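Most newcomers find our protein records easier to grasp once they have seen one. There is nothing in a record beyond a sequence line and a structure line. Getting from the letters to the tokens is the skill we practise here. An example says more than a description, so a record of this kind follows:
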Amino acid sequence: MYLIIALGLALVVWPGVLRHAEPWGLSQGVVKCMLTAFSLLCIIGIRYPLQMLPVLLWEMTWKSLWLLLVALPAWQSGTMDDTIIATAFECAVAIIIPIAMPWGYVFDQHIRKRGDRWGAAAA
């Protein structure tokens, strides 16, 4: 999963990051920088797949939320335009993440496991 994401972003995002002639607007700059950071974290995930699972959980969560809160209402109201359709297809690719996710490990390590103590450590 990490390799697929890292390669995809390397092909799609990195050329524009490395060779952009004009300054980006606020939204475009935020998106490009976040995707670049995400691709770098996915490269780390190739080496440390279990430790980097929160990165995949974040990806799956934001794309699911976007599909439910933006694309679905636009589709239901008949207001989907070309940009929403294109983004919906890009987000729909995240359907592979829950298929590849080791849910037993996620449940044990991120839900059932006792959380770390806040504040000073017990002596």
Notes: The chain has two domains: 1-18+25-48, 50-109. Residues 50-109 form one domain. The mean pLDDT is 92. Residues 114 and 120 are 17 Å apart (CA to CA).
